[in-house]
Specification:
The structure is a single chain. By secondary structure, the protein is mainly α. It contains 1 helix and no strands.
Length: about 60
C-alpha cells in the first residue's frame, strides 16, 4: 500500500549505486594520472640529463 515509500527507497538505492560507481571511476582516474605524471617527470629528467651530457662534450 505504501508505493511512494518503496519508490523513494529504490531511488535512494539507485543513486547510491551510481555514487559508488562514480567514486570508483574517480579513484581509478586519479591513480592513472598519478602514474602518468611520474612517467612524464622521468622523461623530462632523462631529457635534461641527455642535454647536460651533450654539453659536457663541448667543455673537454
Amino acid at each position: 500500500m505504501d508505493n511512494k515509500g518503496q519508490a523513494s527507497a529504490e531511488f535512494i538505492l539507485l543513486f547510491g549505486g551510481i555514487f559508488v560507481v562514480v567514486l570508483l571511476a574517480i579513484h581509478m582516474y586519479n591513480s592513472y594520472m598519478s602514474d602518468l605524471s611520474g612517467e612524464i617527470s622521468s622523461k623530462e629528467v632523462n631529457e635534461f640529463n641527455t642535454g647536460l651530457n651533450s654539453l659536457k662534450n663541448y667543455f673537454k
